[in-house]
Design goal:
It is a single chain. 21% of the residues lie in helices and 14% in strands. It has a domain of 33 residues. The protein is extended and about 45 Å long. By secondary structure, the chain is an alpha+beta fold. It has a two-stranded antiparallel sheet. A two-stranded antiparallel sheet has the order 2-3. Bound molecules: protoporphyrin IX containing FE.
């Protein structure tokens, strides 16, 4: 199945399954770092994007996706060039 950006909007509601996606666990042992992780990751990516020009290697490569244990791209290469200070 391909990626559906509108998945969390109303037309898809009938397909939602409670607890289908729980990257930080559920219940009493829910991850204590979930909040900090979700803030820290975009900050790290923003820092990298600000400091480098990022291109896929080769530039024509199309990302391949997998869904287990959480949605992620399969192994791919990027090239970092042009360091901006
Ligand atoms: C993307 C990053 C992270 C993911 C996907 C993640 C995921 C998880 C998962 C699946 C659990 C187990 C929940 C369970 O047993 O039901 C867990 C537990 C835990 N995580 Fe994370 N975690 C992340 C980052 C962090 C960070 C940054 C911290 C600390 C700063 C942290 C602290 C903890 C602690 C203390 C527990 C144990 C909670 C307990 O047993 O009561 N995690 N995490």
């Amino acid at each position: 199945m391909s990626y559906v950006p509108d998945w969390h909007h109303a037309p898809y509601q009938e397909f939602w399954q409670k607890y289908a996606y729980a990257p930080y666990g559920i219940g009493a042992h829910l991850c204590l770092g979930a909040g900090i992780a979700e803030v820290q990751f975009p900050l790290n990516v923003a820092m990298l994007l600000k400091q480098f020009d990022v291109t896929l290697d080769p530039p024509s490569y199309r990302l391949k996706l997998a869904n287990n244990p959480t949605p992620h791209p399969l192994k791919f290469k990027i090239k970092l060039t042009g360091i901006h200070h």
